[in-house]
Amino acid sequence: MIKTFSIISLGCPKNTVDSEVLKGQLEQLELRYDSNPGNADLIIINTCGFIESAREESVDTILETLELKKGDPGKKVIISGCLAQRYPEQLRAELPELDGIFGVESAAEIVKKICGSAESCDDVERIRALLTPAHTAYLKIAEGCDNRCSFCSIPLMRGKQRSRTIDSLLREAAYLHEKGVRELILIAQDLTRYGSDLNPRTDLYELLDELLAARLFPWVRLLYANPDFWQLKINRLFQKYAEICPYLDIPVQHIAPRILKLMDRGDNPEQIRATLMQLRRDVPNIALRTAVMVGFPSETAGDFNELLNFIEEQRFERLGVFTYSPEEDTRAVTIPDDVPEGEKERRKDIVMQLQWNIAQEFAMLKVGQTVEVLIEEENEAGYVGRSRWDAPEIDGIVKVKSEQPLEKGGIYPVNVVDVDGIDLIAQTDY
Length: 430
What we know:
alpha/beta
């Protein structure tokens, strides 16, 4: 009989939210959560299938977890998420030891599998049980994606965009506020298309304006905005509300017109530049995070150099880089993958070295300034936190020394006195 369960959530924050919904539903049915999979009767692995490295991580995690069954035949292991959605038959054939395979948004099915006829709760706004630290939570405003980037398999796994209503999102935000969340992070596959599928239509500006007007959270952060659809009117909200962090994740993928066109990302680099320039004009202290891809089929040395020059020109405060990997059933697989893997990695390393220098320069500019920091943890050296320019897990940290005790989840002004690579070193004067 299953009395305890554990969830291993892989991949992006959207997966994290799905795992939190499932955790909340199972806890309502009086199953006890244990963060240590080895102690649990049931282990649920929420997989990622975005790119080859993510698939490899998911498969490795499944294999490692199945090893736990060998010493405990009563233990159950089931998988869900993107990898399971995309390749259920292959996984079922190759891993018969699995006790269940479910796709994305499958909480109700999993609950039924575990608890038989037990009814699941569909009140997502109040059911979530956080897996993140109590002071930070993600708000998934839409599922799926209507963009059709030629290299991306997300629409194949998660389907077309399905936006949630503003009312439902405000209810969930209020619930998270009651739980003590201080930093709310809005996520979707593409924030900028939010509301275009609703009737009546709405948009990200309207959602943000209503959410921020409620003044529920000291920090509100935005992740994953397609520059092709960014509405410049949203820039005004950064000026109107102090709560919105001067930070935006706005993946550009590339800048060479020919590569952008092959990616189905448009072929207008000047429009991308104009959007970024206007953001910096309207929000002078903003930190822009982007993602780029190197080694896309037919990317020449000239295309790559154009991308490097663009990164140098824009000086993104935060940047991630991916090497192209062919994704089954996407349009890009019809283009010969003619950039050798070694060359892809070389280009990636060049981008990351350039970005390290840019990020380090940004950090050094903060020395002597007083900045707000959200405290994440305490250690022997003091405290570790994040600034308003740093999203959890993907960006830098702030190492804080304080004579007075600081509360986890508290937001404090600190004085930046030095840097450690791209991280800040700070102290309090109280």
